[in-house]
Each structure stands twice: as structure tokens, then as C-alpha cells.
């Protein structure tokens, strides 16, 4: 069994693979204050009762793949793998790790590991050219060329950040539930804010993706050849409203981690 861990700024997603199939997943809050021992206890609590794993921490885990956008959490997870999974091959996505995706950026090291991992999975599952829209703490748009290269991307404020900002800066506004409203024209303040979030972000996706497609394929290319993949915990909020989205793959990052693990474990 392969354990994959995707550490985001707000949430951490753990996935358990049996071969190419994801058989279990868990989602927890990302807390940079947690120590390696606390993380180990939490992981044991999540995995300890799974029928495919043993009673002790590490039983049944044959490999681990980790990517993190939070350096302090990555440091503690590195300690977890050393102390509690010492005999298990572990791949931590950082500079020097083989991904198979060339990075066409001014400074490749500044690109978030999760964004490169998403590109790896997009190329494997759909080929290029492609655009990955990841709805997380930030909404990121990542472009993959026809040759499978990471061509660059866009970073915009995420859905939850926008909701919180409205509640903080609006004197008569408050934090609301992230839900689809009855209609675009809200009949009360909550519905009006929900409409602004859902349809505003759907419009943003369609507008940004349209421009990225044209730039990605060039003046003589066909924008219709670009596959647009949505992922991230908040993607369901705009699915069905953003016309530009072709595919929804909620476990895109975990699949990318599995692929990167397979490409590196033989070199360890």
C-alpha cells in the first residue's frame, strides 16, 4: 500500500493506494504547530482501523509520497518518516526529485510542489495541452504544453479567502455558508453573497481559461484541443457553472504523488 500526503495551506489530504486504485482517503486541517509525534498519533488514529492495514503504525504501508506547500509541516513529516516509517521508502517532493515534467519558469524552484504534481497527473491522465484549475486556499491555474511541459500559471484569491474578506471588510456582511443560492439574483444578503461567490468564480474560471487557452496554443492552434481539469476541495462549488471545465478529478494531486513515487523509488 502506498500512502500519499498532500499538505495544503488550509487542509491536508491523505490517500491510500492499492496499486493504481485509491482505496481510502482522509482530510484534516493543516496546523504548522503540530509536531512529528502529534502527526504520527493522528495518522495512526486515521489508519489504525482500516481493514487493509495492521494495528501498528506502519503496518501494511510499503511506500510514502509527500508534497507540501507549508515548509514547517514538511519538516515534521520528514521526521515522521524517519522515526515511524524508517524501513519504508519515502519520496518527498522537493528540488532534485524526478517528475518527468520540465518547468518553463524564470525560477523553477519557486513553483509550488503541488502545482508540479498536478501537472504530472494531468499529462498522464489527459495528455497535453491542458490547464489544471485547483480550488484550494488560492485558486491556481496551471498550463501544461502539448509536449508535457509546465508552462506557467495564474494565482488568484481562493473562494474561502474571498468569503472571509467580505465578512471582515463589509460592515453589514458576515461569513456565510458556502452553498449554491436559489438564483443569481439573491433575495437576501446571504443569497446575494453566495451568488457573488459561485457565479463570480465561475465567470473568473471561464475568462481566465479562455485567455490561457489562446496563449497556450498560439495564434495558429485550436483552443478546443486544451483539456481543462478541475481539482481541489472547493471545485464542486463551481462545477456545472463554469463552462470551461472539461474534467473533474478530485484526487489529481494524490495520483500525481503516486506517479512521482513510482518514478523515483527505483533510484533510491
Shape, principal axes of CA atoms: globular
Report how far apart the termini are.
Answer: 18 Å
Mean pLDDT: 90
Strand content: 15-25%
- List low-confidence stretches: none
SSE succession: EEEHEHEHEEEHHEEH
Reported for the largest beta sheet, the result is: 5 strands, mixed
**How many beta-strand elements?**
10
Name the features.
5-stranded mixed sheet; 268 residues
Would you kindly provide a written description of the structure presented here, covering whatever features stand out?
The two termini are 18 Å apart. The model has no long low-confidence stretch (mean pLDDT 90). This protein has 268 residues and is an alpha/beta fold. The relative contact order is 0.15. It has a five-stranded mixed β-sheet with strand order 3-2-1-4-5, with helices on both faces. Strands 8-7-6-9-10 form a five-stranded mixed β-sheet, sandwiched between helices. The chain is built from six helices and ten strands. The chain is globular and about 55 Å long.
Quick recap:
The chain has 268 residues and is an alpha/beta fold. 35% of the residues lie in helices and 22% in strands.
List the helices and strands and how they pair.
Layout: E1 2-7, E2 11-18, E3 21-29, H1 36-47, E4 63-68, H2 71-84, E5 90-92, H3 113-126, E6 130-135, E7 138-144, E8 150-157, H4 159-169, H5 189-217, E9 227-231, E10 247-248, H6 252-264
Parallel strand pairs: 1-4, 4-5, 6-9, 9-10
Antiparallel strand pairs: 1-2, 2-3, 6-7, 7-8
Helix pairs in contact: 1-2, 3-6
